[in-house]
Design brief:
Number of domains: 2
Shape: elongated
Strand content: 5-15%
Largest sheet: 5 strands, mixed
CATH superfamily of the largest domain: Nitrogenase molybdenum iron protein domain
CATH topology of the largest domain: Rossmann fold
Oligomer: single chain
Number of helices: 14
Radius of gyration: 20 Å
Length: 309
């Protein structure tokens, strides 16, 4: 994907989201996947849990030393109240501040195997896109997976909660997030819909309406000008964006668009409603984890600058 590899934010975004979106797996679906009995509030070890690679992960006891190699997993662990158990993280885990002070252990394809082994984790959390073979050969217990759609965030929270004997905490966290999402959505619904284009890369790559970010845009009051039939993260022609004539463009500086042939005809460019999100806001939008409602608020403020959801 060439230019996509240049941006750390885009790299993290693609790690978590480029896979095909999957639907919500709540209640009975979560119970089947994690081995938890419906309605149970604690984990009875040993337990076996399926990961997104189709493997059965066995946990003989409650994990006490955890390595997280995906920012959304790191944020989930701290949100569940088990941050003190995290002994190392990937290079991009920077929230909460405590996570940023932990040993940095590489990324998706360059995890620091010797350092990870030296930390003696009893659970390593990675993306389903990660290379897990070396970790497993070293005798480590590895769960591979991530949220690949908006609703899938809640499955991953519940699954991590199940692995760490934090089922009640995971349920409460999910309920809190849903309430915050609904509050942003309701406030955005009171305003006019705004046509929007979100650019990931100058190729240009963008987000389809069914993607994680696409759903966030819709809930925040935006109508994506990219047709659903092109996929979740398509590369599109500039002519398609020009024809869509979005009122707001996100993810790219205005100066870049002014220099592109024909883009000066787009309403967002003419009106100056083009925003390259600062890194801290971009991370809120592209990480499918417990801060998705905050990411929605970021989008809503750009779509409706006179309002503050």
């Amino acid at each position: 994907m060439g230019p996509l590899s240049r941006s750390p934010v885009v790299r993290v975004f693609l790690v978590a989201l480029v896979a095909l979106a999957i639907g919500c797996q709540r209640d009975a679906g979560i119970a089947e996947r994690t081995g938890a009995a419906p309605g149970s509030t604690s984990s009875a070890y040993p337990i076996e849990i399926r990961d997104d690679l189709g493997r059965t992960v066995s946990l003989p006891a409650e994990p006490r030393r955890i390595v997280s190699l995906l920012p959304s997993h790191t944020e989930t662990l701290f949100a569940l109240g088990v941050g003190a158990r995290v002994v190392g993280v990937d290079d991009y885990s920077d929230d909460p501040p405590e996570a940023a002070r932990l040993p940095r252990l590489g990324g998706l394809y360059d995890a620091h195997l010797e350092e990870i082994v030296s930390l003696e984790p009893d659970l390593v959390l990675v993306s389903e896109q990660a290379r897990t073979e070396a970790l497993e050969r070293s005798g480590l217990t590895v769960w591979g997976g991530s949220a690949r759609s908006f609703e899938d965030v809640f499955r991953v929270i519940q699954t991590i909660g199940r692995m760490l004997n934090r089922i009640s905490e995971a349920t409460r966290l999910s309920e809190t997030i849903r309430k915050e999402v609904i509050a942003v959505e309701q406030r955005a619904a009171a305003g006019e819909r705004v046509s929007v284009y979100y650019e990931l890369d100058a190729a240009p790559y963008t987000v389809g309406p069914s993607s994680f970010v696409g759903v966030m845009l819709e809930k925040a009051g935006g109508d994506n000008v990219i047709p659903a039939g092109l996929g979740d993260f398509p590369r599109v022609s500039p002519e398609l964006v020009i024809a869509g004539n979005p009122s707001v463009i996100l993810g790219v500086p205005l100066a870049d668009l002014v220099a592109r042939p024909g883009w000066d005809r787009i309403a967002a460019v003419r009106d100056g409603r083009v925003y390259r999100l600062p890194p801290e806001e971009s991370r809120l939008v592209v990480r499918p984890g417990p801060r998705i409602a905050e990411g929605m608020r970021v989008l809503a403020r750009r779509l409706h600058p006179g309002d503050s959801p």
